[in-house]
From TrEMBL:
The active site is at residue 122. The keyword Magnesium does not apply. The lineage of its organism: Bacteria, Pseudomonadati, Planctomycetota, Planctomycetia, Pirellulales. It comes from Bythopirellula polymerisocia. PROSITE patterns: UPF0034. FMN binds at residues 32-34, 91, 163, 193, 249-250. Residues 30-337 form the DUS-like FMN-binding domain. This is tRNA-dihydrouridine synthase.
Amino acid sequence: MLPTLEEVTCLPLAKPFYIGPLLIDPPILQAPMAGFTNFAFRQIVREFGGAGLLATEMVNARGFVWLDEQEAEHPDRLWGVAEEPRPLAVQIWDNEPATLAKVGARLADEYGVSVVDINFGCPVRQVTQKAHSGSYLLKHPDRMGEIIEQVVAACTPTPVTAKIRLGCTRESINACDIAQVVEGAGAAALTVHGRTAADMFRGSADWDRIAEIKVHLKRIPLIGNGDLDTPQKVVDAFRHYNVDGVMIARASLNKPWLFAQAAAAVRGESIPLDPTLAEEKQLMLHHYELVCERFGVEKGTLLMRKFACCYAQGRRGAREFRKHVGTVITPEEFYRVVESFFPEG
């Protein structure tokens, strides 16, 4: 039987680590998630604390270049990046080394980001089959190495990192080999999601497979990702698997305070309590205000539907709330639905 949090929180379980020259403290990272980890979400996470490095949604490098050539506003996914506190990572994706290097250089020089992360893990069809990017590139280690080398050269001294999956399928797991390619090409850290591309988000993350990778890395840190939805699981990741850091993803969408709880747990401190439902409701309204500040109330209300559903997840009455909040189109409707249907118990 695994020990309880009370039994393990007497001493720190993990220490800060470096990505290049950047200190990651606490060693807990917020994962980039398309459609969710925008400025408003990052601001909520930052207010709670506990994330040693925050990240944007992944940015399509080719789309960035096209917007730049058209002298249009840069991608919405870079909303707030120039002004918000550091450290902050921006994740980019494509399959053309020169395009990724060009965008990486702009992010490092113009935006002054702390880390440029390259996505080699996204399993969705639009990225893999249509664009031959994301986890599709796990089948082409030489191409990955070329991409990383060019982005590293373009971004220096800003560190460049890579995020991968275990492989394309369970029958073709090659993360240990890919890890050596990533390190050899000059990346400053490697994050591994413990599923294959074919798994999508089904089943459980394989942390034993993640841990196997560490012995193949000589100088860069290993960050594990997958299924970390409680402080206890973060504690277990550091206690039982050979990782330097962890990355929390989907669980933070309905619990943005999870980073603070996990950081306290690994430091051996008392773990903050979950917010009350009343506090959660106010937090959601604060999130709504942040979204509307950027996109206006019309678009902001539509965008907030999915975030509002996250806040109610796992609560009694969540289904009824989701049914109603998923149709709102005006601020008045949003506030009415929140008052009438947000779970109270």
